[in-house]
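Same chain as my last thread, 473 residues:
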Amino acid sequence: MKIFRKNDFRSFEQNSFIKYITLKKHLTLVLIYFVFFCFIVSMLNPIKSYGEKIITLNEAYLYAAKLNGTIKSQRESYYQSTLLKWTAISMLLPNISLTYKDQRFHQNSPSSSSSSSGGSNIFSFFYPTYGYTFALTQPLLDIPAIPAYYAAENSIKSSKMSLNNVSQNKLFETASDYYDVLSNENLVKADRKTMEEALSHMQLAKAKLKAGLAIITDVLQAKSEYYQAKQQYIAAKNKLKSAEANLRAIIGVNFNFKVVKPKNPALLNNSLKKYIKSAYKYNPGLKSLKFLKKESKDEVYYYETQYIPKINFEATYNGISDNHFIPQGNEHYWTAAGVLTFPLFQGGTRIISIEKARSQNNANMYELIQAKRNLRADVVSGFYNIQNLKYQIIALKHEESYAFKNYKLVEEEYKAGVATSVDVITALAELASARHNLLAEKLGYYSSILNFKTLTGSFKRELIRLSIDRFKY
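reply #2:
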């Protein structure tokens, strides 16, 4: 039998403590490495481990502005329009050309009688000559270049305005789809709550049937209501998936994400008159028509200036070498001239072009006038529609509150044996309908505000803060 002394126990305790400390250090290092690995993975992959990422409304705007194909296509059209002004500038730039000619003369010599070729000719090439010419043509007076340049500038502004309009429309669709996803998420929550309430009533009906306080018809009705509520819940989830797919397509991403509730859109406390003035000043569609009208007007000036004379300065430098015909062997000389071109008659081309340009200018003017009338009508209609929707939402909130209180009251009465199962199911259906109506009205209210902001131009001014150049004009 081994006897343990006090020192032996102390040594055993020290060794155990050292092993415990060493194990603790190893576990701490493993934990640190694991946390560091998770951090690296999260940095490399912004999508969370469960495959979803949180996207705010502002981030959705940025995704759409960067990845939406329609915006990118319109951006290329804007780039093409920027090349038009160089066509007008080139009307005033010089033309420089070089022409070089190198040639040989030959003499046709008859063959000798002793040739075995049977009388074939012999071609001897000699007398080399060459010549080159430098030519310069510099326009001095070309008045049509001025309206052509202004027309090109207006075309650039119009194209950029079209890019802004397309961008704004796509970002408006982004905001609408974003609020649609939020509304469908709330719809899923509401239908899940309705399904849970229907399940609770079905369980209560089964309990009362076992206690002999209800009949089998009550249970069947409760089951029918539960399965109907469950079907609505499944339909709401499918509708949410569809809305998320639409938002995913418009912003150009292919990963799953979650949305968060942004600040609800609202209007400033301005009068209707101020909103109409703001629409006349900032509405992008109206500004596009103004640029089109100015562009067509400058095009009229361009065709009208075709009868103004043009003056060009032309100069050439010629270098010729002809060893055979010129005794000295070469000749170099300059030529310079001022050329005046005065068109007298150009057939019907100029007249038809001017009339077409004037007609297009008139059409743009009439379209601008009608667009102002339509814009004013849309602003007035949208303003009063938002006011009506605001009061309808207040009424629907009271209706939902009343339907919820009525359902709870009827449920308590059913527990006490005063009300029937049909009364409970009817109250629950009214509550579900009130919830749906309130959510649909809220979505319509937010969409109406966004559309109204688009009409008045305030939606565009909010997008400028994204610091993207194509939204600035």
